[in-house]
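Here is the promised in-class demo. Please do not try to memorize the tokens; focus on the logic of going from shape to residues.
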């Protein structure tokens, strides 16, 4: 049997000051062990391309190089194209989704990434869900299924593997599996809706499915998270849905995955349940040693391990090799992405006001204060100025509300402080730009115009400014 380390995909994180340098000793150790790939978080375009070339050269076998590209390759890699949130693109139809997926895949190949951990096919059905929201493609099972299949088909046609997540559905949770083990108490009949997008994904030939660190008693009365549930993975995913490609865990550093169990034991349990690959353990050597002990003792069946190794190898052969892009093609991608962003911005309340010549801006930032830096907040004003509109006191009042999906918040609503700031800002008539889920409209007082711009990244700020100036 080949080394079982091939079933492990550690993380490599970019450091703003030192680049990938702090991660390189651990990377060398992982390559020596024979891991099957990596997941990359962050980085600059040329640095990521150089890293993936070095990884390929240092590995005894082909690697799967993954990244969370839900909003395009620019979500992780500076210098590549950022796209609107999945829900925003889905609102524009399947052609827009296919364009977004093609841009994502071709830019992934530009830097040597072979596996886009997207799309999210969870249903956006629980208003209190703190972690899915605009990452989802919608709330209607059939529509989400079609949208997910369109994204998957276009991504994989462009040579990059796709991954539907988080099986069997994270959309009904009211907790975030990064922080705890959520439990979905819905009946099996209700959960059929959540399974439908996965049936579409399997039909589209999706290369991978990611498990949810969520318990579903109707599918497995033991209360185990899906990641560790043989009834859910073997029973529902493998047998009922007839899926025979890669099953990968969500990150094993998450609290929903551990629940008092160490990574080595969790890794063994995940493989026993039907997972093929183990994503983002920190104790890579400990996990590999546990897999080897499990294989030697018979706790891990040889036939299962051989099948998982074969699926991983088949996936590496299915992905296309890296292919660098020219500046002209990248510029076309940026132009198309900006067109998608403009088209996605929509009026959700009131009537648009005439294009202002001067704008008095106020910001309510519900995204500030977390463990990660927020995107720059000046892009909206910069875009106004670029089109000749002055940003100055006394102009038309515009309130920017930044309320993106942030797991650290552990909530789907605005904070009390943000609601108070917003109420104070709207004492006088104003136009509101909501950089968040459209359902947050219910938390915006008054009857004035509200534009939904979905997320607070730079591209969406610029798109919102353009739409405001269009009147």
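The designed amino acids, position by position:
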């Amino acid at each position: 049997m080949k080394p079982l380390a091939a079933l492990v995909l550690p993380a490599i994180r970019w450091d703003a000051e030192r680049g990938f340098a702090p991660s390189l000793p651990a990377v060398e150790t992982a390559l020596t062990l024979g891991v099957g790939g990596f997941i990359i978080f962050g980085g600059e375009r040329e640095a990521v391309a150089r890293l993936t070339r070095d990884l390929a050269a240092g590995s005894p076998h082909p690697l799967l190089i993954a990244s969370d590209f839900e909003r395009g390759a620019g979500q992780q890699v500076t210098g590549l194209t950022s796209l609107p949130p999945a829900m925003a693109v889905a609102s524009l139809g399947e052609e827009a989704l296919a364009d977004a997926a093609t841009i994502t895949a071709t830019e992934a190949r530009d830097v040597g990434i072979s596996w886009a951990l997207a799309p999210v096919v969870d249903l956006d059905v629980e208003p209190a869900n703190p972690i899915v929201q605009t990452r989802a493609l919608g709330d209607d099972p059939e529509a989400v299924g079609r949208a997910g299949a369109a994204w998957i088909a276009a991504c994989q046609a462009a040579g990059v593997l796709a991954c539907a997540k988080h099986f069997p559905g994270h959309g009904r949770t009211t907790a975030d599996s990064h922080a705890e083990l959520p439990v979905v108490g819905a009946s099996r009949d209700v959960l059929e809706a959540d399974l439908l997008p996965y049936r579409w994904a399997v039909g589209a030939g999706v290369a991978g499915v990611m498990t949810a660190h969520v318990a579903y008693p109707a599918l497995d009365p033991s209360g185990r998270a899906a990641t560790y549930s043989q009834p859910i993975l073997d029973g529902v995913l493998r047998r009922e849905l007839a899926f025979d490609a890669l099953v990968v865990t969500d990150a094993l550093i998450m609290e929903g995955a551990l629940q008092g169990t160490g990574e080595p034991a969790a890794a063994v349990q995940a493989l026993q349940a039907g997972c093929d690959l183990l994503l983002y353990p920190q104790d890579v050597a400990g996990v590999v040693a546990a897999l080897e002990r499990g294989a030697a003792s018979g706790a891990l069946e040889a036939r299962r391990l051989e099948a998982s190794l074969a699926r991983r190898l088949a996936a590496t052969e299915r992905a296309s090799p890296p292919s660098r892009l020219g500046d002209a093609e990248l510029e076309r991608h940026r132009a198309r992405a900006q067109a998608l962003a403009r088209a996605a911005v929509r009026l959700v309340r009131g009537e648009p006001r005439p294009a202002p010549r001067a704008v008095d801006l106020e910001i309510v930032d519900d995204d500030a204060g977390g463990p990660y830096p927020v995107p720059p907040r000046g892009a909206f004003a910069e875009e106004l100025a670029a089109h000749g509109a002055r940003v100055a006191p006394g102009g038309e009042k515009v309130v920017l509300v930044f309320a993106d999906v942030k797991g650290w918040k552990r909530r789907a609503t605005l904070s009390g402080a943000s609601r108070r700031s917003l109420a104070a800002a709207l004492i006088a008539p104003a136009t509101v730009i909501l950089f968040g889920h459209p359902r947050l409209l219910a938390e915006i007082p008054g009857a004035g115009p509200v534009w939904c711009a979905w997320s607070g990244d730079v591209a969406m700020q610029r798109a919102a400014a353009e739409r405001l100036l269009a009147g």
